[in-house]
Amino acid sequence: MSNDTVPNFLFVNRGKGKFDETATTAGVAYSDGGRARSGMGVDSADFNDDGWMGLFVANLDREMFAIYRNNHDETFDDLALPTGIGKATKFMSGWGLKFFDYDNDGNLDLLLANGNPDDLIASLHGEVTYEEPLLLFHNTGKTFHNVSSQSGPVFAKLLSARGMAVGDFDNNGALDVLISVNNGAPLLLRNNVGAQNHWLGIKLVGKKSNPDAIGARISYQAQDLKRSRMKVGGGSYLSSHDPRIVLGIGQREKIDWIEVKWPCPGGVERFTELPINQYIKIVEGDGKWK
């Protein structure tokens, strides 16, 4: 949980309705300098494909954003500086954000919607502006590269962006983005890249588990590519995303198998003979896709 001007919270589910708040010992409550930051947007994903969920928290200007790698022992390390995300966001204020595979190559990329909350900030701090550009970071599988300048003219615009929702509005497998703008019309960004690679879209429906299958983990393999994705709820800042999950496989022409581990304990289903470049529905317990 990202908190404005006070330490962040991290609630670890111990089962049977018990949660422990561990943000301080986990290393996500404060900055590396020991200060509480102005947390706004937040997302969680297995961005380095090690099977463990990492975190991203956007903060306000001169605080840097944070991208936390999961150390598999209930602690996290902030990779903002080594990834270059810290330098790119040092004077920015972040709101909506999302890990998603915009080019369907199998790696989770990162989009950030930014804008300072104070419309007079430029008169107080010359290096900070009220309107700020969007930022897109491409995940190479090893690190993140800032590809904003190569991703279309909208990334050259200065915006007072706030909420951001990701979803495939034209159902072509390329995840699009809707951005709300403070005192302005929203922006709908059509993805022109994702459909150039192969993909499979899945709608999960829980029966014993919750209906939206929040907490389900989808693992899949396509030749040499093996990935897993967690179904998360909510999204970034005052936003809700398309509930469907899109699995990118690059130029590979077949998905060998998909395994769904449902949130309800003991519920695991495996599927083969799957199509590509279309959406399917998987209902918990049916043993088949539709």
Output the keywords.
290 residues; mainly beta; four-stranded antiparallel β-sheet
Number of helices: 4
Task: Please give the radius of gyration in angstroms.
Answer: 19 Å
Helical proportion, percent range:
under 10%
- Overall residue-averaged pLDDT value: 96
* Widest sheet, order of strands: 3-4-5-6
Order of helices and strands: EEHEEEEHHEEHEEEEEEEEEEEE
How would a crystallographer describe the biggest sheet? 4 strands, antiparallel
Strand content is 35-45%
Ends apart, CA distance between termini: 36 Å
- Flag low-confidence runs: none
What is the approximate shape? globular
Number of strands: 20
Structural class, from helix and strand content? mainly beta
Provide a descriptive summary of the structure in words.
This protein is mainly β and about 290 residues long. The protein is about 5% helix and about 35% strand. It has 4 helices and 20 strands. Strand 12 and strand 13 form a beta hairpin.
Task: Summarize the SSE layout with pairings.
Elements: E1 11-15, E2 18-21, H1 23-26, E3 42-45, E4 54-57, E5 66-70, E6 76-78, H2 80-83, H3 85-89, E7 94-100, E8 109-114, H4 121-124, E9 135-139, E10 144-146, E11 161-167, E12 176-181, E13 184-189, E14 198-205, E15 217-222, E16 225-230, E17 245-250, E18 257-261, E19 268-271, E20 279-283
Parallel strand pairs: 14-20
Antiparallel strand pairs: 1-2, 3-4, 4-5, 5-6, 7-8, 8-9, 9-10, 11-12, 12-13, 14-17, 15-16, 15-18, 18-19
